Amino acid sequence: MCGIVGYTGAKKASAILIEGLKKLEYRGYDSAGVALQHDGRLVINKAAGSVADLEKSLDGNYKSIKVGIGHTRWATHGRPTDENAHPHCSCSEEIAVIHNGIIENHHSLRQWLKEDAGHNFRSETDTEVLAHLVEEYYEGDLLEAVRKATAKVEGSYALVVISSREPGRLICARQDSPLIIGLGEGENIVASDIPALLAHTRKTKVLEDGEFASITPENVDIFNSEGKLLNREIFEITWDIEAAEKGGYDHFMLKEIMEQPAAVKETMRQRINTASGKVDLSELGLNGEELTRLEKIHIVACGTAYHAGLLGKAVIEELAGIPVEVDVASEFRYRNPLLKENQLVVVISQSGETADTLAALRLSRQKGLKVLAITNVVGSSVSREADEVLYTWAGPEIAVASTKAYLTQLIALYLIAIYFGEIRGNLAPETAAKLVKNLRALPEKLKKILSEESLSKLRKYCDHLSSWDSAFFVGRNIDYPVALEGALKLKEISYIHAEAYAAGELKHGPLALIVEGIPVIALITQKAVFEKTLSNIQEVNARGGAVFAITQEGFNDVTKQVESVFSLPPVEDILAPVLAAVPTQLIAYYTALARGSSVDKPRNLAKSVTVE
Ligand code: M6R
Fold this sequence. Notes:
By secondary structure, the chain is α/β, with parallel strands linked by helices. The chain contains 20 helices and 27 strands.
């Protein structure tokens, strides 16, 4: 949830830490701080506020300091105050710690450290116990002290620790929270996420759960929990630095929406055999016999990824003929799900670090089920722990509101449905071939939706929508998950209260809220339920609701009934959600702009939810 950077080398550490923290700021917004190692002491500078505030307070000072750690915080234990900002220090102020995660037994540790060992605490955070614990165990070797301290800890952590007594050395530890070490020439850098490293190096070593690292300008040594030195392969990052920056757009979200045609194409690339026109997911180690035996699939995810899963259910059931259950991960993990043999669990997570999704994955594996992960981040916890991984090749998604990752998750689910369907003999080859052809045509159709003409139409509509505090999204069949995702996007970044309903549910309650002019965004892209949805639109019209319909070109009866219509390029109905999602993303974006809200970093939210 928070952002972590540590540097040791020959350059000005504070500048490198600030630059790295800015790249990670989306992971934690409420406070920031650095600890710099200087002349046998630690210089701490931290406060509630943004990284830019921290940069101002450093005011170009500490030019000669070449070692330090930095942190951006998203509050979990303790309010966002100066005292609660990281780094946290030991009593002697010789040891400083930055931490991402949650120390679950921090109450009892704090009590012991205060009452029996005489330590003085300055913050309300769980993290501060780590600084005092390391101090308690320190006998001249920081690595050993961190190892002993973490042995007392229950919970999750990515930690970087420095001591004024060990110049040039960073000690790291990881449990259930990511840490990646970037390797340089005469310098090394550690961070909780790749964008903070890219300006310096593409060569990395990933720290695994239960491991520790000792980092100096010349060496990176990784140890297991018993202190055995490990040989870790170098992992080369292929992301372009530009790909992690805004690329000329005002916001990451808009940039990421615009990248969708390429992201969709990339996710299909190499998975569709252009010669045979067939989907080929042989990259998954699932054999035909296994797929034929499958009796049920459980899809588990959170937020937007969960909405992708709802569409996945419909398409897998339709194309592969396998019953699918979809669960929100935080419910799945605590509801004792009936997991049996001949079942498969599919977890979906953009970041691959969402705590509940990871817990659901682990639970499923404990119960003996195979887990297939759909994720966007190579080397993420989900990707490493799942049995099989299908990557979405969306590239780094920085905006908190997920857009391109969502669309590529949908593509991954179509590919799975078609592949499984063909192998199981549920999908006729000619039907599969037609679907594949239409899938491959989606990037061009997406480009049309992203034309200036469409954008200006949506901008105009959002001027109306932005003056309301409440809105509805409705749709039937596979338009319904798109409505759910559209409502989530709108509330997430514009702060308008938005609710999605299966259109047939309107008369079972929500119709009471339809008043003159209230915005209702109706998804009507499915021929099979066209007339039914149209009737629902008429019910809204009759009560004065202002319907904005998202439909397909050629569905002319909608245009007759509704004032504002956004027509998608014609598309095979089952694939319409990929196109229909885009105007809903743009509606959220332009409405947020019109209301002046913070598009890329909505209040109270973080990009990667690595705590429960
Ligand atoms: O990284 P994940 O896909 O596991 O994240 C799941 C949700 O936290 C995420 O989709 C969230 O709902 C988005 N901010 C929505 O735009």
